[in-house]
Automatic annotation (TrEMBL):
Name assigned to this protein: AB hydrolase-1 domain-containing protein
Every Xaa-Pro dipeptidyl-peptidase-like domain range: 16-278
Keywords, alphabetical: Hydrolase
Domain of life: Eukaryota
PANTHER family, alphabetized: DIENELACTONE HYDROLASE DOMAIN-CONTAINING PROTEIN-RELATED (PTHR22946), POLYKETIDE TRANSFERASE AF380 (PTHR22946:SF9)
């Protein structure tokens, strides 16, 4: 995808440098996703891969830049490099928005922001404070610096750390250079900013092939402890939030992110990926979620693998290897496969196998016998996927909601681990004890619409 070097000036006159990615072919102004990396990382550490994938699959642009004092970007006059001041990095996001809005390639009304790890927390605040933002993508975020600090730093080492902060302040006031410490270390007893084994593995690998340097100012740790970027998360709405959390994150702990997410208001979407903090960066198992179509059109798809619920404001997204994911689409009555051609084509572009449970009656006149055939056909296809070791998502449209639920109970070899879920797209799903007829005129239940059992609600048991 076309990429050009760009630079822009912040409100305090610091030059930030980065890249602007655009699709190979595009017409007119496009939405823009603004991306900055996390703690001490530089843009060469796979942000180019993220942006290239986005712009190769979608008509959007991506503005990627290095944080101040890191990589290609400058720092403020008389300020040290490799110092992380969260309030300044948050302000820089807003300045990046202003710059993006000035570009000929960008539709300034359609701006999204993406952040990961430390910047994953930043975007929670920026999205709440800067209403030019139309969607927020937060990946493995640091949501509460104080709580995160006490998880990472042993309690017996805290007094020494506080004393170091005091000594550093006195030294700076006396004209001495700032104290710096390693970002990572293989010695668990040595001071470092990110004292986890997976941090050491990730950053040392990139040190060998990028301009990343293993140092950060000591004051950056002091700033981290006082940083609480999720304190306005309840004010983010109605801007949509998509948060990705690693199930076993020990760097920005999973439970802290989930607690912050619980305070966010709708519209919001939570996506949990397997693994730890840095699994979110490992292509193709990356967990970047999408714009809601009400805000960015067409929606930004997930890198590599995404399952799209077309009627929702967000995308239901599953991250796994390409060849393990399949979608079984249960269509609406009066629908044939051609009604879903655009969805099937898009899914194939993302290397996702899609089968449509074809209605037995092209005329669309559903009878009791036809319903049994629908269910039997869908359950057989579901079982076939399972036998091929596929992870299956049932996507139900309209009348297909009945079929999808019944197919789950009718299939005799459904593995709970292989069935990812059922996504209802404008589909029928009456509550237990109600009928299809109840949805209209309160007429008595028809034989194929009564809801008589429920193990994965709502399930429909025709008799």
């Amino acid at each position: 995808m076309p990429r050009k070097d760009v630079e822009f000036k912040t409100s305090d006159n610091v030059i930030l440098r980065g890249w602007l990615f655009t699709p190979s072919s595009s017409n007119g102004k496009l939405p823009c996703l603004i991306m900055a990396h996390g703690w001490s990382a530089v843009k060469e550490m796979d942000l180019d891969a993220f942006a290239e994938h986005f712009t190769s699959k979608l008509p959007i642009t991506c503005l990627v830049y290095d944080n101040r004092g890191f990589g290609a970007s400058d720092t403020a006059k008389d300020q040290p490099r490799h110092e992380i001041v969260p309030s300044l990095q948050m302000s820089d996001y807003s300045d990046a928005i202003t710059y993006a809005q000035s570009l000929d390639e960008v539709d300034g009304r359609k701006i999204g922001i993406w952040g990961s790890s430390y910047s994953g927390g930043h975007v929670l605040y920026v999205g709440a404070a800067d209403k030019r933002v139309k969607t927020v993508l937060s990946q493995m975020p640091l949501v509460n610096g104080f709580e995160n600090f006490v998880r990472l730093v042993r309690s017996d080492m805290v007094p020494g750390m506080i004393q170091m902060w005091e000594d550093d302040r006195k030294g700076r006031a006396a004209g001495k250079d700032p104290i710096v410490i390693p970002v990572v270390s293989n010695d668990p007893a040595a001071p470092s900013a990110l004292p986890t084994p997976d941090s050491y593995e990730f950053f040392t690998a990139w040190e060998k092939k990028s301009c990343w340097k293993n140092e950060v100012t000591l004051r950056s740790i002091e700033h981290l402890r006082s940083n609480d970027p999720s304190h306005l998360i309840h004010r983010l709405a109605p801007t949509p939030l998509l948060m990705t959390v690693a199930a076993n994150d020990v760097l920005t702990p999973t439970d802290l992110a989930l607690e912050a997410y619980s305070r966010a208001r709708e519209p919001k979407q939570l996506h949990i990926i397997p693994g730890g903090h840095f699994d979110g960066y490992r292509l193709p198992r990356i967990a970047i979620l999408a714009f809601g179509p009400a805000h960015i059109t067409p929606a930004l798809r997930a890198c590599c693998v995404e399952v799209t619920a077309l009627a929702t404001g967000f995308r239901h997204t599953v991250t796994m290897e390409h060849d393990s994911l399949a979608i079984l689409l249960c269509p609406g009555s009066w629908h044939t496969t051609r009604h879903y051609d655009s969805f099937v084509t898009h899914a194939k572009d993302l290397y996702i196998q899609v089968d449509v449970a074809i209605p037995p009656n092209e005329e669309g006149q559903v009878t009791d016998d036809d319903f049994e055939i629908h269910v039997r056909n869908a359950s057989q296809q579901l079982q076939a996927f399972m036998k091929d070791d596929k992870n299956v998502l049932l996507l139900a449209h309209s009348f297909g909601g009945f079929v999808a639920c019944e197919a789950v109970t009718a299939a005799s070899h459904v593995s709970a681990g292989r069935l990812l879920g059922i996504v209802f797209v404008a589909a029928f799903a009456p509550e237990y004890g109600r009928t299809f007829a109840d949805l209209f005129a309160g007429q008595p239940a028809q034989s194929w619409t009564a809801i008589e059992a429920s193990t994965v609600p709502p399930l429909f048991r025709p008799r």
